[in-house]
Design brief:
Length: about 220
């Protein structure tokens, strides 16, 4: 079953030198439960594409359907609800709140979504346990290793059961050992939960762990072998 469908997607940015076409006529589909990697040079539009899929930006034209709903037609309020309920985001820089513990970081998006405190705490505990870090629940980010911080970030992205998990260079700030641990975790999440994952990476080894690879070149998306 198709969970993500992108049709004739274009995105252009205006600058001092004129208009720069970042994405040109992108059309592709992702099946539910698949892990898809997107590769490309810096500035090729990989992060721009993730922002569009996460409703953090709007395309010039084209359609993005997630779970059968065209998110490009969403109102501002509907986009907020979409980000809170239907999509999870993993950042290269982890983006954890330094003043909060690991557990508090995970429950924060639930509290913003209006989930009652007790239920948010229970969901956050289950999510933290799923990444093997309950013994770090009371630790703030500064007391966690880079790999542990990324695992907390993954738990936070998964805590609300999103349809789509978007990962922007999830191993980019990690050494090879921690990168493998994080990729193993994402593969386990995909296999056990049937989670759909779309990740951006520069690392060929990371991309090879995915079910299929797309390459962004000069704004055009090409499917790899």
């Amino acid at each position: 079953m198709t969970i993500l469908k992108v049709e004739r997607l274009y995105k252009t940015y205006s600058g001092v030198g004129g208009c720069l076409e970042i994405l040109k006529d992108l059309t592709f589909e992702v099946e539910r439960g698949a892990m898809v990697a997107i590769m490309g040079a810096s500035g090729s539009g990989k992060t721009t594409l993730l922002h569009l899929l996460g409703a953090l930006d709007v395309p010039d034209r084209g359609k993005i359907e997630v779970g059968g709903q065209d998110i490009t037609r969403y109102t501002a309020r509907e986009k907020v609800l979409y980000r809170r309920r239907e999509v999870g985001y993993i950042f290269q820089q982890f983006n954890l709140v330094s003043s909060l513990t690991a557990l508090e970081n995970i429950e924060l998006p639930l509290l913003y979504a209006g989930v009652p405190y007790r239920r948010a705490r229970e969901q956050a505990e289950r999510s933290l346990e799923s990444v093997g870090l309950m013994d770090r629940a009371d630790h703030r980010p500064a007391l966690l290793s880079g790999g542990e911080q990324q695992r907390v970030a993954i738990a936070r992205a998964l805590v609300h059961g999103p349809h789509l998990l978007l990962a922007d260079e999830p191993t980019g700030n990690l050494d090879s050992r921690n990168a493998r641990l994080v990729l193993d975790l994402l593969k386990r999440v995909q296999g056990q939960l049937g989670q759909t994952i779309l990740l951006v990476t520069h690392d060929p080894w990371v991309a090879e762990q995915a079910d299929c690879i797309f390459y962004l070149r000069d704004g055009v998306l090409e499917k790899g072998g």
